[in-house]
C-alpha cells in the first residue's frame, strides 16, 4: 500500500469522469526489481480508465540515444575504464535526458500525465552510492547543478519511490534475468552492496523532498492504483 496521507480512492462515478488536462510529470524511482514497470502499467490503466491521456518513457533510452548506448556498452565492459568513472557515466546519463528534454516538454503539453521510469534522481542516487556519499554530499549537488540548473530539465510534479528490500529487488531481478532474454542485469544491478547504498540514498532524497514532492510506496505490497491516481490528478 502507498505510504503517506493519500485521499481515498475515487468511486465509480468519479473514476469514469473525463478529467481536465493537467500536464503532470510523474517519475517512478527505485532499485532494479522494485516493480517500476508494473507500477507504470497499473497507473497507466487506472488513469486511462478515468479519461486521462497518458504517455510513458524510461531512462536510459538505450535504443534511442547514443549516450545511453555508450552507457550500456560501458556497463558490459566496453570502452576501457569508462564504466569505472562515476562522473563520466553520470554525464552520459545526463546527456541522454538532455536530448529528451524537448520531447518531454511536448509530451507534458499534449498529455494529462507523463510517466517516467527513472529520471534525474536515479543519477544522483547511484552516483552517490558508488562514491559512498549521502544525499547531502558533493555528488548529488553536482548532479543538481548539471541536470537541473544547467540543462534545465522539466521538474516533476511528483516523484514516487518504490521502496523494497534489496533482497526482494535482487530476487525479482534474477527471476526476470532467467525468464526474459533481453533483461540481463548489468554490473550496477548485480552489485548487492551498491544496491543497498543506493536504496539508502533514495530514502534520503525522498525525505528531503529533493527537487519536488515525493511519495514513498511500499513496493512489497499490492499497489493501490486508485489512491495513487487520485494523488496524481488532484
Automatic annotation (TrEMBL):
Entry keyword set: ATP-binding, Kinase, Nucleotide biosynthesis, Nucleotide-binding, Transferase
Signal sequence coordinates: none
Residue stretches making up the Thymidylate kinase-like domain: 28-210
Catalytic activity entry: dTMP + ATP = dTDP + ADP
Role description: Phosphorylation of dTMP to form dTDP in both de novo and salvage pathways of dTTP synthesis.
CDD domains reported for this sequence: TMPK (cd01672)
Family the UniProt entry places it in: Belongs to the thymidylate kinase family.
EC id: 2.7.4.9
Protein name: Thymidylate kinase
Organism, as annotated: Saccharopolyspora halophila
Top class in the EC scheme: transferase
Top-level division of the source organism's lineage: Bacteria
Molecular function per GO: kinase activity
Amino acid at each position: 500500500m502507498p505510504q503517506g496521507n493519500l485521499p481515498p480512492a475515487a468511486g465509480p462515478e468519479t473514476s469514469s469522469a473525463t478529467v481536465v488536462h493537467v500536464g503532470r510529470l510523474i517519475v517512478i524511482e527505485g532499485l532494479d526489481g522494485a516493480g517500476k514497470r508494473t507500477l507504470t502499467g497499473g497507473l497507466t490503466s487506472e488513469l486511462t480508465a478515468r479519461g486521462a491521456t497518458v504517455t510513458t518513457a524510461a531512462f536510459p533510452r538505450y535504443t534511442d540515444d547514443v549516450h545511453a548506448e555508450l552507457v550500456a556498452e560501458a556497463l558490459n565492459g566496453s570502452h576501457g575504464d569508462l564504466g569505472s568513472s562515476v562522473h563520466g557515466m553520470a554525464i552520459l546519463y545526463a546527456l541522454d535526458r538532455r536530448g529528451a528534454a524537448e520531447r518531454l516538454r511536448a509530451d507534458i503539453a499534449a498529455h494529462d500525465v507523463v510517466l517516467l521510469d527513472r529520471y534525474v534522481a536515479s543519477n544522483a542516487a547511484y552516483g552517490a552510492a558508488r562514491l559512498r556519499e549521502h544525499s547531502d554530499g558533493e555528488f548529488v549537488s553536482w548532479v543538481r547543478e548539471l541536470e537541473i540548473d544547467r540543462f534545465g530539465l522539466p521538474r516533476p510534479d511528483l516523484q514516487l519511490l518504490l521502496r523494497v528490500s534489496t533482497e526482494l529487488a535482487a530476487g525479482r531481478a534474477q527471476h526476470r534475468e532467467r525468464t526474459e532474454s533481453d533483461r540481463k542485469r548489468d554490473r550496477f544491478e548485480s552489485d548487492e552492496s551498491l544496491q543497498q547504498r543506493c536504496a539508502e540514498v533514495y530514502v534520503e532524497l525522498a525525505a528531503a523532498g529533493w527537487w519536488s514532492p515525493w511519495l514513498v510506496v511500499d513496493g512489497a505490497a499490492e499497489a493501490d492504483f486508485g489512491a495513487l491516481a487520485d494523488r496524481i490528478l488532484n
